[in-house]
Amino acid sequence: xxxxxxxxxxxxxxxxxxxxxxxxxxxxxxxxxxxxxxxxxxxxxxxxxxxxxxxxxxxxxxxxxxxxxxxxxxxxxxxxxxxxxxxxxxxxxxxxxxxxxxxxxxxxxxxxxxxxxxxxxxxxxxxxxxxxxxxxxxxxxxxxxxxxxxxxxxxxxxxxxxxxxxxxxxxxxxxxxxx
Amino acid sequence: xxxxxxxxxxxxxxxxxxxxxxxxxxxxxxxxxxxxxxxxxxxxxxxxxxxxxxxxxxxxxxxxxxxxxxxxxxxxxxxxxxxxxxxxxxxxxxxxxxxxxxxxxxxxxxxxxxxxxxxxxxxxxxxxxxxxxxxxxxxxxxxxxxxxxxxxxxxxxxxxxxxxxxxxxxxxx
Lengths: 179, 173
Description:
heterodimer; A: mainly beta; Immunoglobulin-like; seven-stranded antiparallel sheet; B: mainly beta; five-stranded antiparallel sheet; three-stranded antiparallel sheet; elongated
């Protein structure tokens, strides 16, 4: 038994380093690896917000104000998540902002002047949610196979002039990084 | 016996976590606001039948009645298009630019009402039934108008009453 053990140790020594200590060489083997976070499936979001009259906005050029009649709930729905313990949602970029940094810019051609989208996050939606500024990140933990990021969009008047008729449109990329 | 550290097994956690990029697209519309409108009613002066011109088309200076259409408390409005009545409000051809006398009993024959933009005159710009005026404004707008009697048709003007009613349709911008 002890002989076998000694022989085995000797064999390991030979395989790894060669038998001759004077003519030594070595073979370095690097084995690299990692376990990535899993992913989820996610669908694009496209929403039409209800039309409102220009008269619902403040009639003072320098004032700001939103339009409750435009409150529109939507979600970023993650499904089929596996090996995911959470995610960080980066909501567009600073370049998506209007002259007011926390308002998403109206990107429509000949759009309604001095308007933008105010987006809020949380189950409180537009009434009690937290403002999501363009480029902001929202970090959420979850352990089930589905997760819904609750959002709400509304029209908002930005300072600088009066709101008159016209279209609104904005789009931004949500970058979802999984953990 | 030496065992050099010949085998290194390294685990790296430095790879990027998986990332999705997903587009969110929101669209919508702001409609124009509105104004408050008055509903002008005016009684025009009585004039003698002999003040009317002999042929159709001329006005009657003694009947000049200036009035205005007032758009007030406009919010979210940058202008409007005013449509003055409709073709059905017009006198028979060839006087289609004149608002007809709509009375069915007691009407002064061969009469109508000539509507003009701005101040009253013998040669003002006619506002014909069904025609439109487009104006740009904010806050308030006053459209000055003038009504006067005119002769239509080929017959004689004799005693009677004149009345016309029409709807101004305002499309906001």
